[in-house]
Predict the structure of Alpha-glucosidase.
Amino acid sequence: MAQPTVKRAWWKESSVYQIYPASFKDSNGDGVGDIPGIISKLDYIKALGIDIIWCCPIYKSPQIDMGYDISDYKDIHAPYGTVADVEKLIEGCHSRGMKFLMDLVVNHTSDQHKWFQEAKSSKDSPYRDWYIWKKPKYDAEGKRQPPNNWGAVWGGSAWEYDEASDEYYLHIFAPEQPDLNWEHPPVRDAVHDIMRFWLDKGADGFRLDVINFISKVPGLPDAPITRKDQVYQPGDKYFACGPRLHEYLLQLGNILKQYNAFSVGEMPSVQDPKEILNAVAYDRGELNMIFNFEIVDMDIGKEGKFSRRPWTMPKLKGIVDKWQNFMIDNDGWNSLYLENHDQSRCVSRWGSDLPEFRTLAAKMFATFLVLQSGTVFVYQGQEIGMINIPISRPVTEYKDLETLNAWKELLERYPNDKERQRITHEEIQLKSRDNARTPMQWNTSKYAGFSTAEPWQRENESYHDINAESQIGVKGSVFQYWASILALRKSHKDIFIYGNFKLLDVDHEDVFAYTRTFEGKTVIIVTNFRKRPVKWSLPQKITIQQDQVLVSNYDGVSVADETASLRPFEAFAAFVN
Ligand code: NOJ
């Protein structure tokens, strides 16, 4: 049967590689990654089969949140390099047939940005309305309180008091990251100008940071009380996907269209695909795709990121099935990711990083992800199967403000509860953002070949066994597996990029299997998520011959009498009759 709704596009067929600049490659021996370092590794990225590089923020910034606090959108953080270096990087990408994305962080700026400095200087400043200011509230005892009960993402109130003007400003993240007021037209003009500035320099598009937070519900009402033991409450009901979001996104989309540019918006706190479709439906003219958070949030407990909630296979299946079919049926588009700079390493988080399993698990996750419908995102180090920081590293050595704030708050609230502290440390080891931010493991030399100096964040001890040099061009390596599966996706575009998706065996607790079909041709993808052997009955009428296997993380597959005997973390894809 023909697939009438298929709309082809280069951005659907692309594979994206994400770089965390501080931790990718240091070229000048100061322990911090930099742009010339990235340029020196472009051939490596190309060899993986990548079409687009997305680099996390490299702009001038006081680095309270690793560059997600920008103080000048048209200048570069000096340790990373210069604007001229970025131009060279873009050229280097283009000459290899790759595109380059900037990270656009415009829900908030740094408090060191001249706009905020001006805004804070006086209530009469022309920049005052560029941010969100409100008068204090007073409680029954006459004590000054923030204008509403919203909590900041990293703890405390989402409002910071400014003594000089007796007003608070809103910051959904850190106090050093004040939210811009998108209702004020000059703010939108300024964002459009920044976009054009980088697009004119040759950038090919943007990843847009927390872009669904830019429109807030007018009046900024108190959030419902969902965390009974806490003063401040999650306010996302009123700041995520607010009433003017699509108007603002369309304005961004119009600029992107003029440059035929790529866009992926980060959208936390929304699980309704209908809401997302308004931003990504093919003919809406807003964004190409978004990052949704359902998979990476499935093991987050009720009390926040570092509370415990084991993930379950039915949950994972439900999430994937929902997004895959919804976007295929409604002319939308998915991004596919398991890791990024805010998430830990999938092998450790959902698989096993024991030495005997981690290579298999890394390849299994690649198979699970890449053959779904959507644009693939690979996070630096994922292509060599990097793993989490070991539990032996104390939390005091972690660097990220999200982890450090959560740990501090825990120690303040439960100073004597050693058991709670132990569990929280385990959850931090499992999910902290630091896991993704250790230096890229290039080779076995000191500091993992990342730098000649002590890195800003200590390297993961695993670099002796897990590093790029020992994998490039080596048969059976995680790197080569990623390269081959990305190539496979491209060599069967109709099926893997434009085909239908069907989840198989919804109730099976260990195996995630699905088919992709295009015009009568079907591929089955089977992945065993367990570190033990699992028997799995093939769906009726499906048979698999060895010569139909397209990719496998073992040598061939073992199928007899309509039953697959899956080895630990086994994964394969095969044409079916
Ligand atoms: C999402 C980014 O991915 C994260 O790293 C950052 O801390 C927040 N947005 C705030 O910009």
User: Anything to note?
Assistant: The longest strand covers residues 511-518. The first helix runs from residue 10 to 13. The CA atoms of residues 179 and 473 lie 46 Å apart.
